[in-house]
C-alpha cells in the first residue's frame, strides 16, 4: 500500500492524516495544539507539526506529503532565514488602517482588477504595510515574505536558519515555494503572478516571495526522501478534500467562518465583500470569511457553564428566533461586514427572552446568519448553490446542523466527520506523487432539506444593521 500524508496547520491546531493513495482510506492520524493569540511565533507551528506527525505514526512509510494551512499570516524572514518577529495571523485586525491607506493609494477597483481582492486587515499586504509603518527597523530587515504553509513546507524540506540542527540545507530563501491558492490571499498576487509594485507599496521594498508552483507539481523532498507537494490555503484544501463540484457551496465553521465555491472563472468584486481567491486545482475560489465562527459557541458555552453537547441541546429547546433575542457575534471585530473595531452585542433582551436556551440559540443563529449573508454575497457573483456542504469543528453540533437548515435557503449536506483540509492536502500529495488527481469518494453523514424560517434572518438583519449604522456614525467627524 502506498501512503500519502496531508496536513492542516490551522489557527487552533495542526492535524495530520495518512491515507492510502489508491483508495483514500484513512490509515492513521494525529494532532497537536497551537498557541492562542493573533500573533504567533511560527516555531510553535513547526513544533506542533512535528508532534502531530509523530502522533500519526511518523512518515517512515509515507511516500508523499503536502501541507495546507491558515491563510494570509505574515511570516517575515531575514537574509539568514530567521523569523524576524512573530507572525500576524489572518484574524489580527491591527492592520485595518493600513488596509484603508493601501486602498486610498491604489483604489478598490484597481486592487480587484489586479489581485481579485480589495484589502482588509486579514490580507498579508496590509500586515506588511503595518510593519513598514509601526516597526520600520524590522521591515527594513525583511528579505523574504512567506505564508504559514509556505514556511512550514520549506522547514519540512530541511531549509531554515543557518546553524539549526533541523535545517541542514540552510537559509536558501529561493527555495521557498507556494501554490496559487495561498498566493491569492496576499493582495499582491493576481492571475498574471506576483504584482511586485503592490508588494513594494506595502513593505516599502522588494523581497523574495515563494515560487508559485502548479497544483500537482512536486516542490522537492524531505531530507528523508518523502515527496513534498505545493500545499494550499486551508479553504482551497477543503474544496479539494471534498472534491467540490459546480453547485456545491462549502460553509466551514472553524475558527473562521467561510463560504466558498470552485469556479472556472475568476471573480473581481470591487466592493471587497467576496474575495476572488484561486483554488488548489487550477480554478478559482470566490470566498467570504467571518472572524467569528466556532469560537462564538465556545464563548457562549463557557458563559453558560456547559459543554458543546449541552449548548446544542439548550439551543434546540428554544423556538426559532430565540423569542427575539439576537446575538450579533462580532467578538473579534469583523471582516464580513468589514467592521474591524466592532464588538459583540446582544439585542432584544426582555425578562421573557433572556433565558439560557434562547442565549444558546441566539449564538448559533447569529453565527449562521453572518454566513447566510456570505452565501448571498457569493451567489451575487454568479455562483449557483444547489447545496451547502457544512464542515469544520462546529458542524459536528446537532443544533448547528438543524439551525443551518432553517437559516440557509438551500439543502444542507453534512459530509462524514473528517479533516477535509488535511484530506485535501493528502489528495494533493497523491496527485504530486502519481500525476493523477485522486478520485476518492466523500461520504455524507446527513442531508437536510431547507426548513427556512425567514424570521431568523430578518431579526438578525435588523440588529446587525443597527450595529453597522452605529459604527459608521461613529466614524463620521462631528460638525461644528
Ligand atoms: N460539537 C461541537 N460544537 C460546537 N463547536 C465545536 C464542536 N466541536 C468542536 N468545536 C469547535 O470547533 C473549533 C475547531 O474547529 P476546526 O474546524 O478544527 O477549527 P480550525 O481549523 O480553525 O482550527 C473549536 O473552536 C472547537 O471548540
Ligand atoms: O482568513 C481566512 C480565509 O480568508 C481563514 O479561513 C483562515 O484561512 C483561517 O482558517 P481556519 O483556521 O479557521 O480554518
TrEMBL record:
Coiled coil: none annotated. One of its GO terms (biological process) is xylulose catabolic process. GO terms for molecular function: ATP binding; D-xylulokinase activity. Transmembrane segments: none annotated. Keywords: ATP-binding, Carbohydrate metabolism, Kinase, Nucleotide-binding, Transferase, Xylose metabolism. It comes from the Bacteria. SUPFAM superfamilies: Actin-like ATPase domain. The active site is at 234 (proton acceptor). Its EC number is 2.7.1.17. It catalyses: D-xylulose + ATP = D-xylulose 5-phosphate + ADP + H(+). InterPro entries: ATPase_NBD, Carb_kinase_FGGY, Carb_kinase_FGGY_CS, FGGY_C, FGGY_Carb_Kinase, FGGY_N, Xylulokinase. Residues 4-231 form the Carbohydrate kinase FGGY N-terminal domain. Belongs to the FGGY kinase family. Catalyzes the phosphorylation of D-xylulose to D-xylulose 5-phosphate. This is Xylulose kinase.
